[in-house]
Specification:
With 390 residues, the chain is α/β, with parallel strands linked by helices. It has two domains: 257 residues, Rossmann fold (3-Layer(aba) Sandwich); 86 residues, 2-Layer Sandwich (formyl-coa transferase, domain 3), CATH 3.30.1540.10. The chain is built from 18 helices and 14 strands. Strand 7 and strand 8 form a beta hairpin. Helix 1 crosses helix 8 and helix 8 crosses helix 9. The radius of gyration is 26 Å and the shape is elongated.
Amino acid sequence: MLPLEGLRVVEFAHMVMGPSCGLVLADLGAEVIKVEPLEGDNTRRLMGAGAGFYPMFNRNKKSLALDLKKPEGKEIALKLIDSADAMTENFRPGALEKMGFGFEELSKRHPRLVYCTMKGFLSGPYENRPALDEVVQMMGGLAYMTGLPDRPLRVGSSVNDIMGGMFAAIGILAALRERETTGKGQLVRSALFENTAFLVAQHMAQLAITGEEPPPMAVKRPAWGVYDIFKTKDGDRLFVGVVTDTQWEVFCREFGAADLAADARLKTNGERVCAREWLLPKLQEILQRHTKAELSRKLEAMGLPFAPIARPRDLIDDPHLNSGGMIETRDPRGASFKVPGLPLELSGKRLALRSQPPALSADARELLASLGYAPASIADLIAGRVVAVT
């Protein structure tokens, strides 16, 4: 029994933000029905940087492809929504309202419906602007904090889309909990720009407290004296962090650096921060006597933070992820590969794959029958191109 078993969610979503919200709910046990156009969600066909969108964010869902411009298609969608606990959408502002699927209209016929809309912006002067992850990273300060002072750089993931979908899922769960008391659904909104602002809020707070403009992370003065990337004997690199005075004592003892341990200029972390310019080259000399594998074993035994500089391809065979955190999935062509599951454990167990990302409208007949359509009516809807089937 999964936590959200028994909940039905109708998803009008594409790209990453909307589907990532549905992924969270589906992995937790909700029945998430992905309503698509007859030709399918565009992410089914994306290549390049978008090739992983559909298989990554659509597992454990059902698919129903409808022509919502036809009265019969709209009727099916409305019946489906009537049967649902929640509905999600992340299309451009006003798109679903024009088709008769806005919150005001749907809540009149289904007062218990939790309606979640995911957009670029929450209420305010920007709310009707279109937005993409990269747009809000630029205008929200995240690209500035990631790049160099004269060259902002987007984060290397659809971080706002994914996190915006997570906040949408949190909002939906909160609204469902409130519905237990009020008996009524409500409108839930999540947005990319506000999500970005939340991510950089720590830097806003730093400015308010210190009066100093935070520089980009690539050139900032770190909070810890030893917190950097070091070259190893075999030409590789390793990130090493020594973030407490106790860790500094351990580091000096285990690496035979008695001179550094005795240096009065390095007794506290604050003093080591001030000494970074001459301290880091000395630490580089010490650490470069070891290979990456030797350093990794030694630092792990010492209990000090460290990390290899990994690429996404390195995670595929990561022993920790493969000890239970990976899910075998398939792309639209049927090729099999592994992706990380939802980063949660419930009662000591990871959330499992229940169904592969669905083929286009793979669940059409089952869903239509559950809504009361007879086999002959379903055949007519398919023949009339109101519903697609695979």
